[in-house]
């Protein structure tokens, strides 16, 4: 009859398994099974309580004095990614203490950390020479804007085609574990399975082993939180794993006024991670120039910097959308659509100003803003003033994807005179829908515009915006020409993007990752 | 937008002040070939524009304001807003004025200006002084003890070397406006005149010698740089708070923490005309940052490479036992932890020929001038020995240790190295610069084992003869003032 393990027995058994896994990795003693969490204790008995394996590991550490092996040892024994402080203390002790004293210190310190911050009852699986993608943000969030869309479109294409292990942070945000079933749905089946408030029920019960990357390529497709950044910086610097990341933009660094306080500090900490990365893949030429600039500043401090390899983002549209917007609006009045949150960077006050000038000239058109409430602008006040004057202008928030695509298709043209973008998805999406767009004449939006279908202007000149809108509203050839360009424009699909991104972010990773 | 009708509101003092400020604008912008015909003939010379003799009715003042709004060009709207409201206006406010004018809504523009004048200065109605074609030196950084390393020292040197005609200014409470700091005491003018005299520049140059990391101040400098006729210039200190955020993020729970605040400083600098850097390292860092700006559609400032001056150092006779002089302002940015561990390793190593032997190490610490609380110009007179307090002057046998993981400039360390002392420096950008110029060893950051070896090696070197240094800041300040003159 199987013996049901007590808490202490469980911790002892898990420690023995982790020590064996550690020894197997560092000493090449063969694979170690990762038992299921609630395996009967007698099924876990291995004859070694971990001390023999650990003694051999310590011999290896003392003779080799390798910081990466020390990092692995601390992670596996504590079940927590070690802080830089702990790692440096361990390195110091390894250099200065006698073997026996170091062994005692290691046992005491790791037991203490595991007890205070770790999950001593968990088993460990060492992922060796693998490609690991951390998708914690998308796994937990029901948002699906910008970064979340990129991650979900990409991971759903990678999964099953490429040898990638998707991981999330554990509930204490100090170690990796596999995604729960609910988290996999959020990341891989977004839009196919309705997100549900109950979806996270299994998070609290997650008892999967901690996952410890060893000589892996860790891919970061999201922007890290401040706490995660400190861990990743240490991983990149000491662990022997390499990091690659998508680079979205440097707006918080270059344009602090574009964020509501206290936004931006997390991003500045995230740059600590990118400093230590092997590859950063920005989403546009403009974003590439931003990251290149940042890293050349880092290089001025005599530090190595990552390779920066552009991989332009995709933007395709669904083949069709259900009918018209159904808002009862007159189809004879041109509809102009502006997509984006109402914040100073999006320059929506310029759109209102230009529209009012043209309405006063007698032009007839309707303007619809689609986007979140935003911050830091008198947009709402000005919008209400214009509505009070009877102007055909509206702002809709929280619209569905179907509504958004219908709006793109029903618009005569769209407006996106943003002051600073990493990419500018609404520009690419508008063109993908066959709808011309007036957008900014520099940065990433200019790059998209160069493929056709867009009229570019200086976004800081209301007069330029007025002229461009007047030209397209005049019924002349300008709009027809741009529409034709839209139809002919080369569309970059998510398949294109995800394939290219995989090649860029895994380049130079150890061959074992692809075995 | 205000809905009040100023013409029916009884605010005689405000409107009297506004009337006088309108006269000031007319006198400043009017030319024989462009007469601005909105001057009140009874307004006097406009210098004492708080107590204008005009008892002009508010409706008449408002009509004159509307006429002036109608007459001015868009590029003059910043100046209009600054003088009428007696503040440095935010860019969004200036845009609002311009947009009202573009819609021929001159009444709306006038109402916005009057409402802003009322909300900004109704309690004190400060006098506005237009300073034309002058260099304004912003000495706000000399008011407190804050600063980025040597920035306070730099500001002091620039101020001390200012040519005649330079106007020193600081900021009013809540960073609303620039006020005069004419006699070296920024608050003196306000002591004489509680309302203060608000300075509004017209053309000329605004020179920022320190770090402008307070968001309100930074956004107003941005507006000044991008919207006014005044050229702007600053000193480039390097990007430490952004490149090594963990060293400068001292108050993680406060929204206005250092790294994010520093990005506000850079936001102001990105629309300036010129930046003089404090070192080659700072130049290269700022060049990298500047190459990020096209994504925002701005070219960034012209960068001019400079190098800070050096301090004179008094060196005493060599002692038989080397002393470790530890540089750095605080334990985090100077990484004292690594140094302390390295010193323990040096002390622990015995008889291998590279150690300092069995004698106990003496470690003393120097502080950067920015940390000064006594106003001393000599950083080496104010020191602390780890374990007890003392004062000292350096000895020829001392070894300078600076393990700051990030450095783009360090006047104290370079002055000591220039004086001939042996040094062990972290392999930062500035560490490499120092190694090119002076005799010192560089080691990897945070590596106490390498540091211990380097200290032991340095101690084994012969004590160098003292080197005479050109302890002068003149070359740097000359570069600053000549750069300003070219704007």
Q: Counting H and I runs of at least 4 residues, what is the number of helices of chain B? A: 17
> How many structural domains does the protein architecture of chain B include?
3
So, CATH architecture of the largest domain in chain A? 3-Layer(aba) Sandwich
Task: Summarize the biggest pleated sheet of chain A.
Answer: 7 strands, mixed
| Ends apart, CA distance between termini of chain B | 37 Å
The radius of gyration computed from the alpha-carbon positions of chain B, rounded to a whole number of angstroms, is 27 Å
**So what's the overall shape of chain A?**
elongated
SSE-based structural type of chain A: alpha/beta
Q: For the report, how would you describe the main beta sheet of chain B?
A: 9 strands, mixed
Most extensive chain-chain interface: A-B, 63 and 57 residues
What is the terminal-to-terminal distance of chain A?
Answer: 41 Å
Structural class of chain B, by secondary structure, is: alpha/beta
Shape of chain B: elongated
Number of domains of chain A: 3
Assign the CATH topology of the largest domain in chain A. Answer: Rossmann fold
Task: Map the helices and strands.
The complex is a heterodimer of chains A (515) and B (487).
Chain A: H1 7-27, H2 41-44, H3 51-64, H4 67-78, H5 84-96, H6 99-116, E1 124-128, E2 131-134, H7 136-140, H8 146-158, E3 164-169, E4 176-178, H9 181-188, E5 210-214, E6 217-220, H10 226-238, E7 242-247, H11 251-254, H12 265-275, E8 279-282, H13 285-299, E9 307-308, E10 335-339, H14 348-361, E11 366-370, H15 379-388, E12 393-396, H16 401-410, E13 413-416, H17 425-432, E14 437-440, H18 443-449, E15 454-457, H19 462-473, H20 477-488, H21 494-506
Parallel strand pairs in A: 1-5, 2-3, 2-6, 6-7, 7-8, 8-9, 10-11, 10-13, 11-12, 13-14, 14-15
Antiparallel strand pairs in A: 3-4
Helix pairs in contact in A: 1-3, 1-4, 8-21, 10-12, 14-15, 14-19
Chain B: H1 12-29, H2 58-71, H3 77-85, H4 91-102, H5 106-121, E1 127-132, E2 135-138, H6 151-160, E3 167-171, E4 178-180, H7 188-192, E5 197-202, E6 205-208, H8 215-227, E7 231-236, H9 240-243, H10 245-248, H11 258-269, E8 274-277, H12 280-290, E9 302-304, E10 315-316, E11 323-326, H13 336-348, E12 362-366, E13 383-385, E14 388-390, E15 394-395, E16 399-402, H14 411-418, E17 422-426, H15 429-437, E18 441-443, H16 448-460, H17 474-485
Parallel strand pairs in B: 1-5, 2-3, 2-6, 6-7, 7-8, 8-9, 10-15, 11-12, 11-16, 16-17, 17-18
Antiparallel strand pairs in B: 3-4, 4-5, 12-13, 13-14
Helix pairs in contact in B: 1-2, 1-3, 2-5, 4-5, 8-11, 13-16
């Amino acid at each position: 009859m199987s013996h049901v393990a007590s808490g202490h027995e469980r911790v002892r058994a898990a420690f023995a398994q982790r020590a064996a896994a550690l020894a197997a990795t560092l000493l090449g003693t063969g694979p170690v099974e990762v038992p299921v969490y609630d395996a009967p204790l007698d099924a876990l008995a291995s004859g070694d309580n971990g001390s023999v394996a650990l003694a051999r590991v310590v011999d290896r550490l003392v003779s080799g004095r390798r910081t990466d092996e020390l990092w692995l040892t601390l992670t596996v024994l504590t079940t927590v990614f070690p802080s830089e402080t702990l790692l440096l203390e361990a390195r110091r002790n390894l250099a200065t203490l006698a073997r026996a004293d170091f062994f005692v210190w290691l046992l005491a310190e790791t037991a203490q950390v595991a007890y205070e911050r770790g999950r001593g009852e968990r088993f460990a699986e060492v992922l060796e020479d693998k490609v690991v993608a951390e998708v914690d943000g998308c796994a937990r969030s029901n948002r699906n804007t910008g970064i979340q869309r990129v991650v979900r479109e990409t991971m759903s294409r990678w999964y099953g085609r490429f040898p990638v292990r998707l991981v999330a942070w554990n509930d204490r945000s100090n170690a990796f574990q596999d995604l729960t079933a609910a988290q996999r749905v959020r990341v891989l089946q977004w839009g196919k399975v309705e997100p549900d408030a109950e979806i996270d029920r299994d998070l609290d019960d997650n008892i999967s082993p901690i996952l410890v990357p060893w000589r892996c390529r860790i891919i970061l497709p999201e922007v890290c939180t401040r706490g995660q950044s400190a861990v990743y910086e240490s991983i990149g610097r000491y662990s022997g794993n390499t990091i690659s990341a998508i680079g979205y933009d440097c707006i918080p660094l270059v344009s602090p006024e574009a964020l509501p306080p206290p936004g931006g500090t997390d991003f500045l900490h995230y740059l600590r991670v990118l400093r230590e990365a092997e590859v950063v893949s920005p989403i546009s030429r403009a974003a590439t120039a931003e990251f290149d600039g940042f890293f050349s500043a880092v290089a001025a401090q005599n530090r190595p910097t990552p390779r920066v390899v552009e991989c332009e983002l995709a933007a395709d549209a669904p083949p069709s959308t259900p009918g018209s917007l159904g808002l009862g609006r007159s189809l004879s009045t041109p509809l102009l659509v502006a997509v984006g949150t109402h914040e100073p960077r999006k320059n929506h006050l310029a759109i209102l100003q230009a529209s009012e000038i043209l309405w006063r000239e007698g032009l007839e058109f309707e303007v619809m803003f689609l986007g979140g409430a935003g911050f830091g602008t008198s947009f709402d006040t000005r919008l209400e003033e214009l509505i009070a004057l009877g102007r055909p202008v509206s702002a809709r928030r929280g619209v569905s994807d179907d509504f958004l695509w219908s709006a793109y298709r029903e618009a005569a043209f769209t407006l996106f005179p943003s002051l600073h973008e990493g990419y500018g998805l609404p520009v690419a999406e508008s063109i993908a829908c066959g709808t011309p767009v007036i957008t900014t004449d520099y940065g990433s939006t200019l790059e998209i515009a160069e493929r056709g279908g867009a009229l570019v202007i200086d976004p800081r000149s209301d007069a330029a915006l007025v002229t461009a809108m007047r030209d397209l509203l005049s019924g002349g050839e300008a709009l027809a020409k741009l529409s034709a360009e839209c139809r002919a424009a080369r569309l970059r699909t998510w398949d294109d993007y995800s394939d290219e991104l995989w090649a860029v972010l895994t380049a130079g990773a150890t061959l074992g990752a692809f075995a | 937008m205000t809905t009040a009708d100023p013409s029916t509101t009884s605010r005689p003092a405000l409107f009297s002040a506004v009337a006088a400020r309108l006269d000031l604008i007319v006198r400043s912008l009017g030319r024989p070939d462009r007469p601005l015909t909105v001057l009140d003939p009874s307004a006097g010379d406009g210098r004492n524009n708080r107590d204008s003799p005009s008892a002009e009715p508010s409706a008449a003042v408002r009509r004159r304001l509307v006429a002036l709004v109608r007459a001015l060009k868009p590029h003059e709207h910043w100046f209009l807003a600054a003088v009428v409201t007696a503040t440095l206006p935010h860019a969004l406010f200036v845009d609002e004025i311009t947009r009202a004018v573009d819609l021929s809504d001159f009444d709306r523009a006038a109402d916005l200006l009057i409402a802003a004048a009322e909300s900004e200065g109704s309690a004190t109605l400060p006098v506005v002084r237009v300073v034309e074609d002058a260099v304004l030196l912003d000495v706000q950084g000399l008011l407190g003890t804050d600063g980025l390393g040597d920035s306070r020292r730099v500001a002091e040197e620039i101020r001390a070397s200012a040519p005649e005609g330079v106007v020193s200014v600081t900021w009013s409470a809540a960073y609303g406006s620039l006020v005069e700091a004419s006699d070296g005491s920024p608050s003196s003018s306000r002591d004489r005149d509680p309302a203060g005299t608000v300075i509004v520049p017209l053309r000329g140059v605004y020179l920022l010698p320190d770090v402008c990391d307070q968001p309100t101040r930074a956004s107003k400098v941005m507006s000044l740089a991008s919207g006014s006729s005044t050229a702007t210039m600053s000193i480039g200190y390097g990007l430490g708070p952004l490149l090594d955020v963990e060293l400068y993020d001292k108050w993680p729970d406060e929204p206005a923490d250092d790294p994010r605040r520093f990005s506000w400083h850079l936001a102001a600098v990105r629309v300036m005309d010129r930046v003089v850097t404090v070192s080659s390292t700072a130049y290269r860092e700022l060049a990298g940052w500047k190459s990020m700006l096209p994504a925002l559609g701005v070219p960034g400032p012209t960068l001019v490479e400079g190098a800070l001056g050096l301090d004179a150092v008094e060196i005493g006779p060599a002692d038989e036992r080397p002393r470790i002089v530890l540089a750095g302002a605080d334990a985090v940015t100077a990484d004292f932890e690594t140094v302390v561990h390295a010193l323990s390793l040096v002390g622990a190593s015995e008889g291998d020929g590279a150690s300092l032997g069995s004698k106990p190490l003496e470690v003393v610490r120097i502080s950067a001038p920015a940390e000064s609380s006594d106003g001393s110009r000599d950083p080496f007179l104010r020191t602390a020995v780890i374990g007890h307090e003392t004062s000292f002057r350096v000895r020829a046998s001392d070894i300078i240790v600076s393990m700051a993981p990030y450095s783009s400039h360090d006047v104290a360390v370079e002055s000591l190295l220039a004086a001939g002392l042996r040094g062990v420096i972290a392999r930062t950008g500035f560490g490499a610069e120092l190694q090119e110029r002076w005799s010192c060893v560089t080691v990897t950051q945070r590596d106490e084992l390498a540091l211990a070896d380097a200290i032991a090696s340095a101690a084994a070197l012969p004590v160098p003869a003292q080197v005479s240094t050109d302890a002068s800041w003149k070359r740097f300040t000359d570069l600053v003032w000549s750069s300003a003159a070219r704007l």
